[in-house]
Amino acid sequence: MEIKAIRGFNDILPDEVGKWQFVEEVAREVFEGFGFSEIRIPILERTELFSRGIGEATDIVEKEMYTFTDKSGNSLTLRPEATASMARAYLEHQIYSFDPVAKLYCIGPMFRYERPQKGRYRQFYQIDAEVFGVGNPMVDAEVILMLIHFLKRVGLEKLELQINSLGCRDCRPLYRGELKKFLTEKSFQLCEDCQRRLHTNPLRIFDCKVETCKEAIADAPQVINFICNECQGHFNQVKGYLEAAGLGYVLNPRMVRGLDYYTRTAFEVVSYQLGSQNAVTGGGRYDNLFQEIGGLDIPGIGFAIGMERLVSLLPKDKAFVRYPHLFIAAMGEETIKEAYRIINQLHLQGIRVELDYEGKSLKSQMRRADKLKAQYVLILGREELKRGKAILRNMESKLQEEIPISDILNVVREKVKGVEQGNRDC
Ligand code: HAM
User: Fold this and answer.
1) How many CB atoms are located within 10 Å of the residue 369 CB?
2) Strand 66-69 and strand 44-46: pairing?
């Protein structure tokens, strides 16, 4: 029986990969421009990093983690997100001893055992950016600014930035109490999980997808009305900085995010071009996470962009595939050897070159060059070779010219430069 990929785990095929590379390149350029450095962290971590970091009573930890016991009896988990791992690495390697402020980003796959549907997978990729060590609301605004700048640079339109404040350790208990009181009266409407959450973590009832729970929580009190003066002041400053930068936002008092570590600023960027899974990015401040995972009292803020959702929103008319610059059509032993000499020189110049391996006729080599969407074909015939010449054909205009073999490198380099410049301009 043919072996197929696991449900919710996708192959990203060569004709799609150009988009992914483009998005990653822009992320690196934009983030590094804002002073961020890349960090690469393991895919597997000790389970307790996530149960303590994300929160025991969250959907992710309760239901969605790929957890197993290794041969030494350790409980390990495929990372469902990157924030906790990045915080662990910052503590473990004492990155704060060099400079307490660290701006880090990472790109890679995450794993959650969710019900797969369009825009929701069991392995999905995130681009994640975090700032550790600053509690100042200026940073909240800067991180959001960088995110929006990045999304614009990749060409996304019709996005909505939604923000909320989730309060802090001091004011959240007051809200939790009010919410519990409100939901206790409606507890008959709640599913079994939410009945339990009512006692362990009532905020998580907002994440429940069961219709009756959604109805029960529809008119629940909103956290923004319970935050303390300090949190209100922080939120006002974040909004002020966003306004100063000319960034539009929408207040979404119902957004509580699905992870327990958030404090104060929370935000999402949604696209109305996506279906029910419309959040392209989620993020926020988490000033207690470091302590939860056994570290120091260090504030943090960041976001993660879902790459599958982002890539699905890229403009359809933009070319992301890197086609060959040149196809060399060579016939006969002698000319193939000459082609190899030329190819070697062209590759050293970063020119993308393709060749026929099967000794086919000129006609079928031209057909293949066309199929591969090569920009130029260099025809190396025995007769031309004797005269030290080759024919260069522009596959778009169909114009051909004879050029001296000794000039090939210069001529091709110049033409390719023109094509690349043209691509960048459009
Ligand atoms: P999150 O909201 O769970 O936050 O995920 C962030 C983004 O990842 C979502 O907005 C979505 O685009 C994408 N995503 C999440 N789950 C899936 C899935 N099953 N399939 C496809 N895409 C998905 C976090 O992960 C936080 N760590 C974000 C953060 C960073 N907060 C502070 N720093």
Assistant:
1) 25
2) unpaired
- Does 283 sit in the ligand 1 pocket, CB within 6 Å? yes
Three-class SS state of 267 = strand
CB under 8 Å, gap of 24 or more: what pairs does 226-229 form? 226/167, 226/171, 226/172, 226/174, 226/175, 226/178, 227/165, 227/166, 227/167, 227/168, 227/171, 227/175, 228/167, 228/168, 228/170, 228/171
Ligand 1 mean position, distance from CA 126 (Å): 7
In the reported structure, the alpha carbon of residue 118 is separated from the centroid of ligand 1 by a whole-number distance in angstroms of 15
Phi, psi of 49 (to 5 degrees): -60, -45
* Cα–Cα distance for residue pair 132/94, rounded to 1 Å: 12
The DSSP call for residue 393 is E
pLDDT at 251: 97
* Structure-token pair, residue 421: 């410049």
User: Of the candidates 390, 274, 304, which has an alpha carbon nearest to the alpha carbon of residue 129?
Assistant: 304
Q: Which of 58, 140, 84 is nearest to 291 (CA)?
A: 84
- The secondary structure of residue 293, as a DSSP letter, is T
How far is residue 244 from each of residues 142, 156, 237, 267, 329, measured CA to CA in Å?
A: 11, 22, 10, 18, 59
Strand order in the sheet with 250-251: 37-38, 102-111, 123-132, 300-306, 279-285, 263-271, 159-165, 250-251
Q: What is the DSSP letter of 64?
A: I
* Separation CA 153–CA 58 (nearest Å): 34
From 146, 124, 123, select the one nearest 27 (Cα to Cα): 146
Predicted confidence at residue 163, as pLDDT, reads 98
Each residue of 372-405: b (16+ CB within 10 Å) or e? eebbbbbbbbeebbeeebbebbebeeeeeeebeb
Instruction: Quote the longest CA-to-CA distance of the chain.
Output: 93
Residue 209 token pair: 């997808």
Q: Which atom of ligand 1 is nearest to the CA of 84?
A: 27
Query: In a mutational test of the pocket of ligand 1, which residue from 107, 126, 163 has the highest number of ligand atoms less than 8 Å from its CB?
Result: 126
Query: Which residue ranges in the chain fall short of pLDDT 50?
Result: 422-426
Identify the pLDDT of residue 322: 85
Distance 306 CA to ligand 1 centre (A): 6
Q: What is the pLDDT of residue 422?
A: 47
- Element containing residue 67 per DSSP (H, E): strand 66-69
